Protein backbone atom coordinates (compact mmCIF):
# COMPACT_ATOMS: atom_id res chain seq x y z
CA UNK A 1 0.00 0.00 0.00
CA UNK A 2 2.80 2.43 0.91
CA UNK A 3 4.47 1.76 -2.45
CA UNK A 4 1.19 2.48 -4.27
CA UNK A 5 0.67 5.73 -2.35
CA UNK A 6 4.25 6.77 -3.06
CA UNK A 7 3.81 6.01 -6.75
CA UNK A 8 0.53 7.98 -6.94
CA UNK A 9 2.19 10.91 -5.16
CA UNK A 10 5.06 10.84 -7.65
CA UNK A 11 2.62 10.79 -10.58
CA UNK A 12 0.69 13.72 -9.07
CA UNK A 13 3.85 15.77 -8.61
CA UNK A 14 4.98 14.92 -12.14
CA UNK A 15 1.61 16.08 -13.50
CA UNK A 16 1.90 19.37 -11.63
CA UNK A 17 5.41 19.93 -12.94
CA UNK A 18 4.27 19.14 -16.48
CA UNK A 19 1.66 21.89 -16.38
CA UNK A 20 3.03 25.16 -17.70
CA UNK A 21 2.41 28.27 -15.65
CA UNK A 22 -0.14 30.71 -17.14
CA UNK A 23 1.18 32.90 -19.94
CA UNK A 24 1.61 36.45 -18.65
CA UNK A 25 -0.09 38.41 -21.44
CA UNK A 26 -0.33 42.15 -22.10
CA UNK A 27 -2.89 43.63 -24.48
CA UNK A 28 -1.36 46.50 -26.49
CA UNK A 29 -4.13 48.79 -27.69
CA UNK A 30 -7.90 48.72 -27.29
CA UNK A 31 -9.04 50.46 -30.47
CA UNK A 32 -9.33 47.33 -32.64
CA UNK A 33 -12.87 46.04 -32.95
CA UNK A 34 -11.65 42.49 -32.31
CA UNK A 35 -10.26 43.29 -28.84
CA UNK A 36 -13.39 41.88 -27.24
CA UNK A 37 -12.13 38.41 -28.19
CA UNK A 38 -9.42 38.58 -25.54
CA UNK A 39 -11.22 40.84 -23.03
CA UNK A 40 -14.24 38.51 -22.93
CA UNK A 41 -12.22 35.30 -22.98
CA UNK A 42 -13.28 32.92 -20.26
CA UNK A 43 -10.78 32.48 -17.45
CA UNK A 44 -8.48 29.62 -18.33
CA UNK A 45 -5.28 28.36 -16.74
CA UNK A 46 -3.21 28.99 -19.88
CA UNK A 47 -3.29 32.81 -19.92
CA UNK A 48 -3.25 35.54 -17.29
CA UNK A 49 -3.85 39.10 -18.57
CA UNK A 50 -1.41 41.16 -16.49
CA UNK A 51 -1.50 44.50 -18.30
CA UNK A 52 -3.10 46.73 -20.92
CA UNK A 53 -1.47 49.54 -22.89
CA UNK A 54 -3.91 52.24 -23.99
CA UNK A 55 -3.29 56.01 -23.94
CA UNK A 56 -7.01 56.76 -24.42
CA UNK A 57 -8.08 56.57 -20.79
CA UNK A 58 -11.71 57.31 -21.63
CA UNK A 59 -11.83 54.29 -23.93
CA UNK A 60 -10.00 52.15 -21.35
CA UNK A 61 -12.51 53.12 -18.65
CA UNK A 62 -15.42 52.35 -20.96
CA UNK A 63 -14.10 48.86 -21.70
CA UNK A 64 -13.13 48.37 -18.06
CA UNK A 65 -16.77 48.89 -17.10
CA UNK A 66 -17.92 46.57 -19.88
CA UNK A 67 -15.47 43.69 -19.39
CA UNK A 68 -14.53 44.05 -15.73
CA UNK A 69 -10.75 44.49 -15.84
CA UNK A 70 -9.09 46.82 -13.32
CA UNK A 71 -7.85 50.23 -14.42
CA UNK A 72 -4.82 49.53 -12.20
CA UNK A 73 -3.36 47.35 -14.97
CA UNK A 74 -3.78 50.02 -17.69
CA UNK A 75 -0.63 51.86 -18.83
CA UNK A 76 -0.23 54.84 -21.15
CA UNK A 77 2.65 53.45 -23.21
CA UNK A 78 4.69 50.33 -23.91
CA UNK A 79 7.66 51.88 -22.11
CA UNK A 80 5.63 52.55 -18.96
CA UNK A 81 4.25 49.02 -19.02
CA UNK A 82 7.67 47.42 -19.47
CA UNK A 83 9.07 49.46 -16.58
CA UNK A 84 6.46 48.01 -14.26
CA UNK A 85 5.82 44.43 -15.37
CA UNK A 86 7.56 41.64 -17.27
CA UNK A 87 5.10 39.86 -19.58
CA UNK A 88 5.79 36.70 -21.54
CA UNK A 89 3.79 37.89 -24.51
CA UNK A 90 1.88 40.81 -26.00
CA UNK A 91 -1.25 40.74 -28.16
CA UNK A 92 -1.59 43.87 -30.31
CA UNK A 93 -5.07 45.33 -30.73
CA UNK A 94 -4.27 48.84 -31.93
CA UNK A 95 -3.89 50.14 -35.46
CA UNK A 96 -1.80 48.14 -37.95
CA UNK A 97 0.94 50.81 -38.08
CA UNK A 98 1.61 50.18 -34.39
CA UNK A 99 2.54 46.53 -34.96
CA UNK A 100 6.13 47.41 -35.79
CA UNK A 101 6.47 49.60 -32.68
CA UNK A 102 5.11 46.80 -30.49
CA UNK A 103 7.64 44.32 -31.89
CA UNK A 104 10.44 46.90 -31.56
CA UNK A 105 9.63 47.26 -27.86
CA UNK A 106 9.12 43.54 -27.18
CA UNK A 107 11.71 41.69 -29.27
CA UNK A 108 14.88 42.86 -27.45
CA UNK A 109 13.32 41.67 -24.18
CA UNK A 110 12.41 38.25 -25.58
CA UNK A 111 8.68 38.95 -25.41
CA UNK A 112 6.57 37.10 -28.00
CA UNK A 113 3.96 38.97 -30.05
CA UNK A 114 0.67 38.19 -31.74
CA UNK A 115 -0.99 40.80 -33.96
CA UNK A 116 -4.37 41.03 -35.62
CA UNK A 117 -4.27 40.67 -39.39
CA UNK A 118 -2.53 41.91 -41.45
CA UNK A 119 1.04 41.74 -40.15
CA UNK A 120 1.96 45.31 -41.14
CA UNK A 121 0.93 48.26 -43.30
CA UNK A 122 3.80 47.79 -45.79
CA UNK A 123 6.17 45.06 -46.89
CA UNK A 124 9.09 47.14 -45.61
CA UNK A 125 7.59 47.18 -42.11
CA UNK A 126 7.02 43.43 -42.36
CA UNK A 127 10.69 42.92 -43.20
CA UNK A 128 11.69 44.96 -40.14
CA UNK A 129 9.40 42.85 -37.96
CA UNK A 130 10.89 39.61 -39.31
CA UNK A 131 14.45 40.87 -38.80
CA UNK A 132 13.66 41.64 -35.14
CA UNK A 133 11.93 38.29 -34.62
CA UNK A 134 14.88 36.39 -36.11
CA UNK A 135 17.50 38.38 -34.21
CA UNK A 136 15.86 37.98 -30.81
CA UNK A 137 14.35 34.53 -31.41
CA UNK A 138 10.73 35.42 -30.64
CA UNK A 139 7.47 34.18 -32.10
CA UNK A 140 5.43 36.71 -34.10
CA UNK A 141 2.04 35.26 -35.02
CA UNK A 142 -0.74 36.88 -37.03
CA UNK A 143 -4.33 36.06 -36.12
CA UNK A 144 -6.93 35.48 -38.87
CA UNK A 145 -10.51 34.52 -38.14
CA UNK A 146 -10.44 32.17 -41.15
CA UNK A 147 -7.71 30.08 -39.47
CA UNK A 148 -10.37 29.02 -36.94
CA UNK A 149 -12.67 27.59 -39.65
CA UNK A 150 -12.73 23.79 -39.73
CA UNK A 151 -14.18 24.08 -43.26
CA UNK A 152 -10.99 25.74 -44.53
CA UNK A 153 -8.83 23.09 -42.88
CA UNK A 154 -10.92 20.29 -44.41
CA UNK A 155 -11.01 21.98 -47.85
CA UNK A 156 -7.21 22.20 -47.95
CA UNK A 157 -6.87 18.62 -46.68
CA UNK A 158 -9.29 17.31 -49.33
CA UNK A 159 -7.42 19.13 -52.08
CA UNK A 160 -4.04 17.85 -50.89
CA UNK A 161 -5.26 14.24 -50.79
CA UNK A 162 -6.33 14.56 -54.42
CA UNK A 163 -10.12 14.68 -54.14
CA UNK A 164 -10.49 17.32 -56.89
CA UNK A 165 -7.36 16.50 -58.89
CA UNK A 166 -4.81 19.16 -59.76
CA UNK A 167 -5.63 22.67 -58.59
CA UNK A 168 -6.43 25.19 -61.31
CA UNK A 169 -8.30 28.13 -59.77
CA UNK A 170 -9.13 29.51 -56.32
CA UNK A 171 -11.71 32.22 -55.67
CA UNK A 172 -11.78 33.85 -52.23
CA UNK A 173 -14.34 36.48 -51.24
CA UNK A 174 -14.21 38.41 -47.97
CA UNK A 175 -15.88 41.49 -46.55
CA UNK A 176 -19.09 43.18 -45.45
CA UNK A 177 -21.16 46.33 -46.06
CA UNK A 178 -18.39 48.62 -44.85
CA UNK A 179 -17.14 49.84 -41.46
CA UNK A 180 -19.56 52.77 -41.31
CA UNK A 181 -22.58 50.71 -42.31
CA UNK A 182 -21.95 47.89 -39.85
CA UNK A 183 -21.40 50.40 -37.04
CA UNK A 184 -17.82 49.90 -35.86
CA UNK A 185 -16.69 52.10 -32.97
CA UNK A 186 -15.39 55.60 -33.67
CA UNK A 187 -11.93 54.63 -32.40
CA UNK A 188 -11.81 51.67 -34.79
CA UNK A 189 -13.27 53.56 -37.76
CA UNK A 190 -10.79 56.41 -37.35
CA UNK A 191 -7.74 54.30 -38.18
CA UNK A 192 -9.42 51.60 -40.28
CA UNK A 193 -10.13 54.21 -42.96
CA UNK A 194 -6.70 55.89 -42.70
CA UNK A 195 -4.25 54.78 -45.44
CA UNK A 196 -1.24 55.37 -43.18
CA UNK A 197 -2.56 53.57 -40.10
CA UNK A 198 -4.24 50.67 -41.93
CA UNK A 199 -2.14 50.49 -45.12
CA UNK A 200 -5.22 50.87 -47.31
CA UNK A 201 -8.93 50.18 -47.20
CA UNK A 202 -10.67 46.94 -48.16
CA UNK A 203 -7.62 45.83 -50.15
CA UNK A 204 -5.67 45.40 -46.91
CA UNK A 205 -8.47 44.82 -44.41
CA UNK A 206 -9.90 41.88 -46.36
CA UNK A 207 -7.38 41.25 -49.14
CA UNK A 208 -5.02 39.81 -46.54
CA UNK A 209 -7.41 36.90 -45.89
CA UNK A 210 -7.20 35.62 -49.47
CA UNK A 211 -3.45 36.15 -49.74
CA UNK A 212 -2.95 34.32 -46.45
CA UNK A 213 -5.17 31.39 -47.42
CA UNK A 214 -3.58 31.05 -50.86
CA UNK A 215 -0.12 30.95 -49.28
CA UNK A 216 -1.37 28.27 -46.86
CA UNK A 217 -2.93 26.24 -49.71
CA UNK A 218 0.22 26.35 -51.86
CA UNK A 219 2.60 25.66 -48.93
CA UNK A 220 4.42 28.94 -49.33
CA UNK A 221 4.52 29.50 -53.08
CA UNK A 222 4.93 33.07 -54.24
CA UNK A 223 2.73 34.06 -57.17
CA UNK A 224 4.43 34.84 -60.48
CA UNK A 225 2.32 37.95 -61.02
CA UNK A 226 -0.04 40.18 -59.06
CA UNK A 227 -2.64 42.37 -60.77
CA UNK A 228 -5.17 44.50 -58.87
CA UNK A 229 -7.84 47.13 -59.40
CA UNK A 230 -9.55 49.14 -56.70
CA UNK A 231 -12.64 51.32 -56.52
CA UNK A 232 -14.15 53.78 -54.09
CA UNK A 233 -17.89 53.13 -54.14
CA UNK A 234 -18.68 54.81 -50.81
CA UNK A 235 -16.80 58.09 -51.08
CA UNK A 236 -18.96 59.63 -48.39
CA UNK A 237 -17.94 56.92 -45.90
CA UNK A 238 -14.38 56.11 -46.98
CA UNK A 239 -12.96 59.30 -48.53
CA UNK A 240 -9.28 58.40 -48.00
CA UNK A 241 -9.17 54.72 -49.00
CA UNK A 242 -10.48 52.13 -51.44
CA UNK A 243 -13.52 50.11 -50.42
CA UNK A 244 -13.54 47.51 -53.18
CA UNK A 245 -10.74 45.52 -54.81
CA UNK A 246 -10.08 42.60 -57.12
CA UNK A 247 -6.67 40.90 -56.96
CA UNK A 248 -5.51 38.30 -59.50
CA UNK A 249 -2.60 36.02 -58.66
CA UNK A 250 -0.98 33.73 -61.21
CA UNK A 251 1.19 30.70 -60.44
CA UNK A 252 2.81 28.12 -62.71
CA UNK A 253 -0.26 25.88 -62.92
CA UNK A 254 -3.03 27.72 -61.08
CA UNK A 255 -4.45 31.17 -60.41
CA UNK A 256 -6.39 32.91 -57.66
CA UNK A 257 -8.98 35.65 -57.71
CA UNK A 258 -9.33 37.55 -54.43
CA UNK A 259 -12.37 39.77 -53.96
CA UNK A 260 -12.06 41.87 -50.79
CA UNK A 261 -14.80 44.46 -50.42
CA UNK A 262 -16.63 46.79 -48.07
CA UNK A 263 -19.59 46.63 -50.46
CA UNK A 264 -20.92 43.10 -50.02
CA UNK A 265 -24.63 43.25 -49.03
CA UNK A 266 -24.06 40.29 -46.70
CA UNK A 267 -20.89 39.68 -44.68
CA UNK A 268 -18.85 36.80 -46.03
CA UNK A 269 -15.62 34.82 -45.76
CA UNK A 270 -15.85 32.01 -48.30
CA UNK A 271 -13.52 30.11 -50.61
CA UNK A 272 -13.86 28.00 -53.76
CA UNK A 273 -11.20 25.54 -54.97
CA UNK A 274 -11.46 24.26 -58.55
CA UNK A 275 -9.46 21.26 -59.72
CA UNK A 276 -9.30 19.04 -62.77
CA UNK A 277 -11.89 16.60 -61.32
CA UNK A 278 -14.18 18.76 -59.23
CA UNK A 279 -14.61 21.66 -56.85
CA UNK A 280 -14.67 22.35 -53.10
CA UNK A 281 -16.86 25.14 -51.69
CA UNK A 282 -15.99 26.37 -48.20
CA UNK A 283 -19.22 28.33 -47.73
CA UNK A 284 -18.79 29.51 -44.16
CA UNK A 285 -17.25 28.32 -40.87
CA UNK A 286 -19.46 25.22 -40.72
CA UNK A 287 -20.61 24.19 -44.23
CA UNK A 288 -18.46 22.69 -46.97
CA UNK A 289 -19.53 21.12 -50.27
CA UNK A 290 -17.66 18.76 -52.59
CA UNK A 291 -18.70 18.54 -56.23
CA UNK A 292 -17.21 15.92 -58.54
CA UNK A 293 -17.59 16.18 -62.31
CA UNK A 294 -19.73 13.73 -64.31
CA UNK A 295 -19.55 14.42 -68.00
CA UNK A 296 -20.05 17.96 -69.31
CA UNK A 297 -22.20 19.72 -66.71
CA UNK A 298 -23.45 16.98 -64.40
CA UNK A 299 -21.90 16.39 -61.00
CA UNK A 300 -22.34 14.67 -57.68
CA UNK A 301 -22.46 16.81 -54.55
CA UNK A 302 -21.73 15.96 -50.93
CA UNK A 303 -22.34 18.45 -48.12
CA UNK A 304 -20.34 18.42 -44.88
CA UNK A 305 -21.61 20.17 -41.74
CA UNK A 306 -18.67 20.68 -39.40
CA UNK A 307 -18.15 21.91 -35.87
CA UNK A 308 -15.45 24.21 -34.54
CA UNK A 309 -11.78 23.26 -34.64
CA UNK A 310 -10.42 21.13 -31.84
CA UNK A 311 -8.44 22.66 -28.99
CA UNK A 312 -6.26 24.64 -29.08
CA UNK A 313 -7.10 25.66 -32.66
CA UNK A 314 -10.56 26.94 -31.71
CA UNK A 315 -8.96 29.81 -29.76
CA UNK A 316 -6.11 31.94 -31.16
CA UNK A 317 -4.84 32.82 -27.70
CA UNK A 318 -4.66 29.16 -26.73
CA UNK A 319 -2.65 28.59 -29.93
CA UNK A 320 -0.36 31.48 -28.97
CA UNK A 321 0.22 30.07 -25.47
CA UNK A 322 0.81 26.54 -26.78
CA UNK A 323 3.34 27.72 -29.38
CA UNK A 324 5.26 29.68 -26.75
CA UNK A 325 5.37 26.86 -24.18
CA UNK A 326 6.41 24.40 -26.89
CA UNK A 327 3.42 22.06 -26.66
CA UNK A 328 2.33 22.98 -30.20
CA UNK A 329 4.43 23.16 -33.35
CA UNK A 330 2.58 24.72 -36.26
CA UNK A 331 3.00 23.33 -39.77
CA UNK A 332 5.17 25.43 -42.14
CA UNK A 333 3.33 28.27 -43.89
CA UNK A 334 0.22 27.85 -41.75
CA UNK A 335 -2.07 30.88 -41.46
CA UNK A 336 -0.49 32.16 -38.21
CA UNK A 337 3.14 31.79 -39.26
CA UNK A 338 5.58 34.59 -39.95
CA UNK A 339 6.84 32.93 -43.14
CA UNK A 340 3.29 32.84 -44.51
CA UNK A 341 2.59 36.43 -43.56
CA UNK A 342 5.77 37.71 -45.16
CA UNK A 343 4.46 36.36 -48.48
CA UNK A 344 1.00 37.70 -47.66
CA UNK A 345 2.50 41.16 -47.17
CA UNK A 346 4.48 40.86 -50.42
CA UNK A 347 1.21 40.07 -52.22
CA UNK A 348 -0.62 42.96 -50.56
CA UNK A 349 2.16 45.44 -51.29
CA UNK A 350 2.28 44.27 -54.92
CA UNK A 351 -1.52 44.56 -55.20
CA UNK A 352 -1.47 48.11 -53.85
CA UNK A 353 1.32 49.04 -56.26
CA UNK A 354 -0.50 47.40 -59.17
CA UNK A 355 -3.75 49.24 -58.47
CA UNK A 356 -1.92 52.53 -58.07
CA UNK A 357 0.15 52.22 -61.27
CA UNK A 358 -2.29 50.27 -63.42
CA UNK A 359 0.30 47.57 -64.14
CA UNK A 360 0.82 43.89 -63.44
CA UNK A 361 3.58 43.29 -60.90
CA UNK A 362 6.06 40.55 -61.81
CA UNK A 363 7.40 38.65 -58.78
CA UNK A 364 9.10 35.61 -60.30
Q: Report the mean per-residue pLDDT as an integer.
A: 94
Here the CATH topology of the largest domain equals: Dihydrodipicolinate Reductase, domain 2
CATH class of the largest domain: Alpha Beta
- The low-pLDDT segments are 1-18
Query: Which class best fits the helix and strand makeup?
Result: alpha/beta
How many separate structural domains? 2
Tally the helices: what do you get? 14
Main beta sheet strand tally, sense and closure: 9 strands, mixed
Percent in helix: 25-40%
- Number of beta strands: 15
Write structural notes for this entry.
This protein is α/β, with parallel strands linked by helices. It has 2 domains: 2-145, 3-Layer(aba) Sandwich (Rossmann fold); 149-309 and 332-362, 2-Layer Sandwich (Dihydrodipicolinate Reductase, domain 2). The protein has 14 helices and 15 strands. The strands form 2 sheets. A 9-stranded mixed sheet has the order 14-13-12-11-7-10-9-8-15. Helix 12 (207-217) packs across helix 14. The protein is globular.
Amino acid sequence: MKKIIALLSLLFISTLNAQDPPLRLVVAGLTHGHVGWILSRESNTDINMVGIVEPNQKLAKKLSDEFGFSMDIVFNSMDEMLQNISPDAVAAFGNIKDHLQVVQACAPKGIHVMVEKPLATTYDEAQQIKALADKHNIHVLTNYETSWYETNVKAISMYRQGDIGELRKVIIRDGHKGPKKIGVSNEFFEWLTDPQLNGGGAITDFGCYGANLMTWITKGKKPNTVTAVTQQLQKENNPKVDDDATIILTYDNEMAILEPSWNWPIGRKDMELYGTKGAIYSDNPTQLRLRLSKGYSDYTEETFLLGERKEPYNDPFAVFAAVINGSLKLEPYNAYSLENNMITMLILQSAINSAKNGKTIQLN
